[in-house]
Amino acid sequence: xxxxxxxxxxxxxxxxxxxxxxxxxxxxxxxxxxxxxxxxxxxxxxxxxxxxxxxxxxxxxxxxxxxxxxxxxxxxxxxxxxxxxxxxxxxxxxxxxxxxxxxxxxxxxxxxxxxxxxxxxxxxxxxxxxxxxxxxxxxxxxxxxxxxxxxxxxxxxxxxxxxxxxxxxxxxxxxxxxxxxxxxxxxxxxxx
Length: 192
Known about the structure:
- The structure is a single chain.
- This protein has a single domain (10-183), classed as CATH 2.40.50.140.
- It is elongated, with a radius of gyration of 21 Å.
- The chain contains 3 helices and 8 strands.
- The longest helix has 21 residues, at 48-68.
- Strand 7 and strand 8 (146-160) form a beta hairpin.
- The protein has helices at 48-68, 86-89, 171-174, and strands at residues 10-12, 16-28, 35-44, 84-85, 99-106, 111-113, 131-143, 146-160.
- Strands 1, 2, 3, 4, 5, 6, 7 and 8 form an 8-stranded mixed sheet that branches.
- By secondary structure, it is α+β, with helices and mostly antiparallel strands.
């Protein structure tokens, strides 16, 4: 753990769904030039434990910001916070219905492992739509008149597969109606 990372601001989530996953190759966010590793964590509203941990970590990061940036009080402008309501902020996307979400990012590559803590190097294995537990850290910022709490991405543990997000279908679902027996005949001529 780095010296500026407080255990009170670190959260290891329960089961979340990954969206906009850029875990192996950094990407620049829309309107930005700096490339970062990033992911959106979709958290079911029924996951009260993860939500409570996130809110407590945001409160702790806010207290750190008050002493570090804001002279012991909150800034006059409303703080930007990373925990957002999918029913309000992504109401056009059914994948965010009944969920909160957090966008997490890092300049350094996160550790990505499977359930046995073995490194995953194949980018195809961890994608937008799969389920994971994620280690994140919340911290205050105050730059160019913008104040808030950001979410740093630490590590990702893939737990299980899920339906691809963004319109991509799995090969299994695309070919679900294909019967292998239809192609087992020795007389089958694929060009006829």
